[in-house]
Structure formats: structure tokens, C-alpha cells
């Protein structure tokens, strides 16, 4: 071995040892923040995202998708299972997740966005096996494979449903006729071959649960202050904003269903209806359904101070900075 090759080998070994020592020190001294109120750093989030994507793709490659996956019968059974077990963490068109899901980190994926991108086999694998350290459970011990495929069938239809159509599917009288045709026609016309994360229940014939009422914001316990942009950056992750919107500098979901918030400060209107002012943004964040009925954005039960802080952060997102 030449002298330069020996030097290069020693240099690589020294760098590897230094990196390992640095990593061990970060772990041993508790320097990495594991709290759910603090997001992963962008590099860590990107690494975990790649690991998840590749792991799921490799393990789902040999799964056979049922020929009748898009049948209306499967879709209707999957609707009941989805409402019983999935909407609580993932939400649905116009419906917020339950309060306990809002603080999960990583945030539960928006299944509308994931269903547009993930193949059915990947969605089945994730639902059946779950994902470590995400809060996503494995359903294989609680549901049959047929039931899991029913949920996959419904999730493939989910991106085609408006908030009103999704609500109407929960009405027993309508489900047998007009309202259920939204899911049935979407299924038979072939909802996209993409889908995602979570699912399911115990009995496919269980009645669909009615959507939960909007989460009431808690009563302020302290005097309200002027919005704080840094506090807003942290708060928006606790209300799952990153599952639907791409936000510059904030780690979030790979697949998004809402518009990017890049350049939000430069836009003239909020949701096309309100002049873009901090107070109007506060009102929109606290009750989007009152301002724009039928919007896909649900009422998430923001505290007023959190809404002020998030509005202040959004004012920093300018394309001209």
C-alpha cells in the first residue's frame, strides 16, 4: 500500500471514530431533545423519512392487491372501519383529529395526501404492521387482512370526497342511497392507486360513527400577549399544520394536501376570502369553518394565544426576505 493510501485510510478511520465519539457524547449527555414539543432537526427528519420510505417499499413489494379493491362493497365497509379507528388520529376532509393526536410527534400523516401518493400495497403493509416510534399501531392482531384491505379501499376514495360528502356518508339514511354514491362512484371509477398510513376496526358492518364536534378552545388562563413568531413556529407543529402544509424550515410530511405556506406574508388574502392581516389570520386559524363553510381545513381548537403566535410566525414567511 502506498504512503498516500495509508494516510487516507487512517484519515477515514479517524473521522469515523470522531463521528462515533461525537454521536455517543450527544446521546450520553442528553443533548438531543426527545420532547414531543420540539421537532426533529431537518437532517434527522430527512434521514428517518428516507428510512421509512425505503423500508416500506422493500417490504411491500411482493404483496398482492385484491382484484376487487375498488368495489363499492369494500369501500362502504372500509368507511365504517375508518371512522371507528383511523379518523381519531388522522382526521378526514373537514374533520379534525382528536385532541390527543394533535400533540404526537411525528405528527400522524394526512391520509388524503398519502392516499394520492402511496400504492395500495404500501398502505396495506403500514396498516398491518404499524411503524415504530410514531404512534402508528400494528392492526394485524385486531383486524383480519380482509378488513385491512377494506380500509385501504376506503382510503383510496378519501381524496375524492369533499368535507360535505364525507359528512353525509355518516348519515345512516343517506348512506344506503344518495350520499354513499359519492364513495361508490369514486371507487368504481377507480380512485388513484395511491394510499397511506393508518386504519381499521373490529366489525366491517359496524355503523359509521358520526363526526365529532369541533374541539372547543380552552379558556385562557393568562393575559393574552402580542404574537410571538418563535412560539408560533413551535405551536403550529402541535396542531398538525405540518401534515397538510409545506412550511419553509419546518420538518413535516412528505405528501401535502393544503397549499404551501411559503410566502404567506406576501399574499393579499387568506383562503381567498379575508384580507391578510394578523388579526384576520388569528380568526381564520381559530374557526376556519365559520369564515369559509365547507373548507377542507377543520377547526382544530386553537387557543387564542397560540393562534396569535402562529399568525406572527406566518408573517415572517416572505419570499422577499
TrEMBL record:
**Does the record carry Transferase as a key word?**
no
Question: Which residues does the annotated region (Disordered) include?
Answer: 189-226
Query: Which InterPro entries does this one have?
Result: Cyt_c-like_dom (IPR009056), Cyt_c-like_dom_sf (IPR036909), Cytochrome_c550/c551-like (IPR051811)
Signal peptide annotation: 1-23
A single Pfam family it belongs to is Cytochrome_CBB3
* Protein name as it appears in the record: C-type cytochrome
Q: Name one GO molecular function term.
A: heme binding
For this UniProt record, give its keywords in alphabetical order, as a comma-separated list: Electron transport, Heme, Iron, Metal-binding, Signal, Transport
Q: Where is the composition biased (Low complexity)?
A: 189-212
Key word Signal present: yes
Give start and end of each Cytochrome c domain: 73-159, 227-318
Amino acid at each position: 500500500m502506498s504512503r498516500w493510501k495509508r494516510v487516507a485510510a487512517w484519515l477515514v478511520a479517524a473521522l469515523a471514530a470522531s463521528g462515533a465519539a461525537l454521536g455517543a457524547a450527544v446521546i450520553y449527555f442528553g443533548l438531543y431533545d426527545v420532547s414531543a414539543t420540539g421537532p426533529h432537526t431537518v437532517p434527522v427528519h430527512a434521514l428517518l423519512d428516507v428510512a421509512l420510505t425505503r423500508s416500506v417499499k422493500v417490504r411491500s413489494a411482493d404483496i398482492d392487491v385484491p382484484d376487487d379493491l375498488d368495489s363499492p362493497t369494500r369501500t362502504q365497509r372500509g368507511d365504517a372501519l375508518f371512522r371507528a379507528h383511523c379518523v381519531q388520529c388522522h382526521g378526514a376532509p373537514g374533520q379534525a383529529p382528536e385532541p390527543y393526536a394533535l400533540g404526537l410527534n411525528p405528527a400522524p400523516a394526512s391520509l388524503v395526501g398519502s392516499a394520492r401518493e402511496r400504492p395500495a400495497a404500501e398502505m396495506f403493509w403500514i396498516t398491518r404492521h404499524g411503524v415504530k416510534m410514531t404512534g402508528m399501531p400494528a392492526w394485524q392482531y385486531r383486524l383480519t387482512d380482509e378488513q385491512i384491505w377494506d380500509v385501504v379501499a376506503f382510503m383510496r376514495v378519501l381524496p375524492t370526497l369533499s368535507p360535505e360528502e364525507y359528512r353525509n356518508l355518516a348519515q345512516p339514511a343517506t348512506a344506503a342511497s344518495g350520499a354513499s354514491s359519492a364513495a361508490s362512484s369514486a371507487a368504481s371509477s377507480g380512485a388513484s392507486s395511491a394510499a397511506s398510513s393508518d386504519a381499521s376496526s373490529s366489525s366491517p358492518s359496524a355503523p359509521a360513527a358520526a363526526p365529532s364536534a369541533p374541539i372547543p378552545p380552552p379558556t385562557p388562563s393568562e393575559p393574552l400577549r402580542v404574537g410571538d413568531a418563535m412560539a408560533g413556529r413551535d405551536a403550529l407543529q402541535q396542531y398538525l399544520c405540518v401534515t397538510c402544509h409545506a412550511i419553509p424550515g419546518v420538518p413535516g410530511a412528505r405528501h401535502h394536501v393544503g397549499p404551501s405556506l411559503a410566502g404567506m406574508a406576501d399574499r393579499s388574502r387568506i383562503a381567498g376570502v379575508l384580507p391578510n392581516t394578523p388579526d384576520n389570520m388569528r380568526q381564520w386559524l381559530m374557526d376556519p369553518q365559520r369564515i369559509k363553510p365547507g373548507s377542507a381545513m377543520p377547526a382544530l381548537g386553537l387557543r387564542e394565544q397560540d393562534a396569535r403566535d402562529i399568525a406572527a410566525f406566518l408573517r415572517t414567511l416572505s419570499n422577499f426576505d
